[in-house]
Amino acid sequence: MDKKILKIGHRGAMGHEPENTLRSFKKALALNVDAIELDVYVCKTGELVVIHDDKIDRTTNGTGYTEDKTFTELRQLDAGKGELIPTLEEVLDLVDKRVIVNIELKGRNTAVATYQIIDKYIKNHGWNELDFMVSSFDHPELNKFKHLCPQIPIGALLEGIPLTYAECAVQLNAQSINLSIDFVNQDFVNDAHDKGLKVYVYTVNDSDDIAKIKNLNVDGIFGNFPERL
Ligand code: G3P
Ligand code: CA
Q1: 135 CB under 6 A from ligand 1?
Q2: Which of 112, 202, 189 is nearest to 157 (CA)?
Q3: Which of 99, 117, 212, 228 has its CA at a distance of 20 to 30 angstroms from the CA of residue 127?
Q4: For residue 101, how far is its CA from the centre of ligand 1 (angstroms)?
C-alpha cells in the first residue's frame, strides 16, 4: 500500500478563498484535507489573530502593522469577500477536531498565547495533543512553546538547507521539518528520516511539482489547492 502523505491546506485553501479566513478553512475542509495551516500574531490588546503578514495592507483594506492594532480595529477590516480576520479560537471552533490544525507562530511572542488556547481546548473542549501541530521559522519561539507544551508535535520551519541538515529539528525535539519546495532534495529527506523526523514540504501547487515531491518519499505537502494533492 502507498504511504499516506498528509494533505495540508495552506492558509486554508488560499487558491480558492481569501487566505487565513473562516471561508478559506471551510473550503479546505470541503476539499478533504488532513490538516489546515494558519499563521498567528498577537495584536495590541493581546488576542491571538490569524493573519500572515506583519502588516495588514496586503490581505485587508487597512494599513499598518498587525501588532499595533487593537482587536476592535482589526475586526473592522475586510480580509477578503467580506470576511473578518479570525481569532485562533474561532478557527478551532469551526474545525472542531475534524482535522489537524497546524499553527505557525509568525508574530513575536506568540508561544505563550498559543499555549494558553491549546491548553484550554485540550482541557475543556475534548481536543487531543495530536490534533495540533505548531511550527515556526523562529526556532527560539518554537523552543519556548515546546517547553510550555511538550506533548504537542512541533515542526521546525526552514527556508533553506542548513550545514547540519535536519539537526536543528532534533535539537528542538521536533516531530517534523517543514521545508520549502525550493530546497528539498532526496539527501535532506533521507537525513531527516534517519533522524526519526517527518518531512512536510511547502508550498506545492503545480501538478508536476506535486508528483516530483511525492517521489522524494515526503510525509506531507502544503498546498493552496488541496484537491491537487
Ligand atoms: O508552514 C508552511 C508555510 O506556510 C511557511 O511559509 O510564508 O507561507 O507562512 P509562509
Ligand atoms: Ca504559514
Answers
A1: yes
A2: 202
A3: 228
A4: 14
**Measured from the CB, is residue 47 less than 6 Å from ligand 1?**
no
Query: Which amino acid is located at 73 in the chain?
Result: E
Annotated domain spans of the chain: 6-36+97-228
CA gap 156, 107 in Å, rounded: 15
Among the four given CATH numbers 3.20.20.190, 3.60.40.10, 3.40.50.2000, 1.10.10.10, the one describing domain 6-36+97-228: 3.20.20.190
Instruction: Name the residue with the closest Cα to ligand 1, atom 10.
Output: 52
* Residue with CA at minimum distance from ligand 1 atom 3: 202
CB of residue 200 inside a 6 A radius of ligand 1: no
**pLDDT tens digit string along 112-167?**
999 999 999 999 999 999 999 999 999 999 999 999 999 999 999 999 999 999 99
Residue 120 in grid coordinates: 484550554
Q: Residue 130 carries which DSSP code? A: G
Q: Cell numbers 508535535 label which residue?
A: 153
Output the CA 1–ligand 2 centroid distance in Å. Answer: 31
Name the β-bridge partners of 104. Answer: 39, 135
What is the Cβ-side half-sphere exposure of residue 212, based on CA atoms within 13 angstroms? 11
